[in-house]
């Protein structure tokens, strides 16, 4: 029932596999979160670049290319479900908890939490299948310098 509500809310009706490359899905999701407050700060972009490099296991140059693709993908995407579905399809639960922690790193990178970012984080964690407790623990780990 809740999944139906989310699909109606986001305009997403397709329940099949995502059409987004998982390599670009996380960076695109991170960009979406960073842009949620209307300010895509350089500190957020730098954080996303580092996470992207770790995510794809590539060089800084490759990470920059994937990030550029992800920024364009995010700008043209009408919903968040495409990104979360690609990640959920490719990553086991424990890994998705790590993804939520990386997203919190981006949210907190600029030193402030905005209502838009908090609301988007709740939606993203839910779409990734990560429960509220694990999301809160991930946020706390990031806040504590983890």
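^ Assign residues to that structure.
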């Amino acid at each position: 029932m809740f999944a139906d509500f989310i699909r109606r809310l986001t305009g997403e009706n397709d329940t099949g596999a995502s059409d987004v490359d998982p390599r670009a899905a996380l960076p695109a999701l991170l960009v979406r979160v960073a842009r949620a407050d209307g300010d895509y700060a350089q500190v957020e972009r730098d954080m996303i670049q580092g996470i992207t490099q770790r995510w794809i296991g590539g060089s800084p140059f490759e990470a920059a290319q994937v990030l550029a693709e992800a920024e364009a993908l995010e700008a043209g995407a009408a919903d968040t479900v495409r990104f979360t579905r690609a990640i959920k399809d490719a990553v086991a639960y424990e890994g998705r908890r790590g993804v939520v922690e990386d997203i919190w790193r981006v949210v907190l990178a600029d030193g402030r939490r905005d209502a838009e970012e908090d609301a988007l984080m709740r939606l993203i964690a839910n779409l990734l299948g990560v429960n509220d407790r694990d999301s809160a623990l991930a946020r706390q780990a990031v806040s504590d310098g983890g």
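Residues 84 and 128 are 6 Å apart (CA to CA).
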